[in-house]
Amino acid sequence: MTQYDTISKQYTDVFDSLPYRDIEVANVYAALEPILSPNSHVIEFACGAGFYTDKLLSWGVGSVTGTDISKRMIELARLRLARAPHNDLARFVVSDGTVPCSYSAGGDLEAYDIAFAAWFLNYSATSAELTSMFTSVAINLKPTGVFIGVVPHPTEDFETRAEACAKAPLNRLYPRNDYTGKLESGDGWGLRVYLDDQGTNFMTYHLRPSVYEDAARAAGLKGSFAWRHEILHDDEMWRVKLGLSDEEWTIREKNPHLGILIIWKN
Hints:
three-stranded antiparallel beta sheet; seven-stranded mixed beta sheet; transferase; single chain; alpha/beta; SAM-dependent_MTases_sf; globular
């Protein structure tokens, strides 16, 4: 994940401007909206340059503690929030989310109502690494807390997905997924993601849904476990934004980019 120290500004400028980003935000808000509250304190893993930190606060949560392994990303997050009216409700910590620890200012465990992570869990290459990430989540969540994460679309059929992503129209849409092959562990596939024609890219992993559930349970997240599939509201608007024909849009619908994972602690 330290690859972002090098590509941080380029990644942020490119990714935040992609038409796809609006689709992602709509899906994230739909998942979070029922639990948003000014009394909610949020721990955000892999906060990056503060895109969702800013969103969460504008959506009405009480506070957000953003964590990221990249010092440069945290610097960009602080700059973003410095211009926001809710700057005093954000706090940032440079830390490795794969190493479980408390993120509360006082070092208390189980301090947060919501744990949010957009594109964090997909940096785990094995079930053991994923369990460590979920342990970081579990020890920071209150007993009544909930985790909401954005990850690659949940599937067990990586061969079909890799084939689809290598063909038009998916191979010209950004973010573009390039599946690099099966992991030795059998837990999933390697996945390199490209953001533009200039080659801005980063390495990540797409693990099986069953691996996610087993790792979450092993980490102590014992409550309801559910997947939300990507929803494409206002089909015509998104089709035009992405520049797709009706036929190409059908292919895009059949191959969702993201999935949203919701797990209650107890």
